[in-house]
Amino acid sequence: VKIVESGGGVVQPGRSLRLSCAASGFTFSNYGMHWVRQAPGKGLEWVAVISHDESETNYGDSVKGRFTISRDNAKKTLYLQMNSLKTDDTAVYYCAKQGALAGDLDYWGQGTLVTVSS
Amino acid sequence: HSALTQPASVSGSPGQSITISCTGITSDFGGYKYVSWYQQHPDKAPKLIIFDVNSRPLGVSSRFSASKSDNTASLTISGLQSEDEAHYYCSSYSSSLTLWVFGGGTKLTVL
User: Can you tell me the distance from the alpha carbon of A86 to that of A98, in angstroms, rounded to the nearest whole number?
Assistant: First the structure.
């Protein structure tokens, strides 16, 4: 299993950014996928989930209405569209594969850093 | 939905056992009952070490064990080794709400 995030960088407050996550080594279309973030020096915060067939999505309270999770099963790629970014969104964003029993995240990428600053 | 509560830090000497608690796994809001634990070394991605309350993924040492009682989950690391020094996070999942939540994390120091 290999998971590689990309798309991070420095962005001004109020602007948008799209993260990508390329997956390989497993049948991507069979598993739910998640975004989890970690602000500098802080703990893990669950951000969003999308079901294996895109039929269901859900978000953490702090990003609901601003972030959109999506996926392209043909390209084995997960996305996170982040709009109306705030300085509090500064974090390393991890992409993670959902485990077979659904409750756990069994494989993680190395993360991509998003810095929201003027 | 508030995060789960963990102690900020724990410590132990090599060879000893330590336990990290995780409270707040309640049946409110549809019922958080699936518990998993993650290990994170500095500047590394989190690694799953316990799923479904007390199961270990292949390759994870049997020195890691876990349990759950009422609203509290616990991770025990026996025979502490220097490589166990890391942050540990609990997580729970509500199938009815399709929500995941993490604990605040515990820094383990091996003295």
Answer: 27
The predicted-structure confidence for A59-69, as pLDDT tens digits, reads as follows 999 999 999 99
- Alpha-carbon distance of B81 to B99, in angstroms, equals 34
Distance in angstroms (rounded) separating the CA atoms of residues B97 and B32: 9
CA distance B81 to chain A (A): 23
What span, in angstroms and rounded, lies between the C-alpha atoms of A66 and A84?
6
B18 CB-near residues (< 8 Å, 6+ apart) = B10, B11, B12, B76, B77, B80, B108
Cα–Cα distance for residue pair B40/A103, rounded to 1 Å: 18
Q: Which two tokens stand for residue B89?
A: 């996070």
Per-residue pLDDT tens digits for B63-108? 999 998 888 899 999 999 999 999 999 999 877 777 899 999 999 9
CB nearest A110 (choices: B45, B48, B105): B45
Q: Would the CB atoms of B45 and A49 count as touching at under 8 Å?
A: no
Residue B70 DSSP one-character state: T
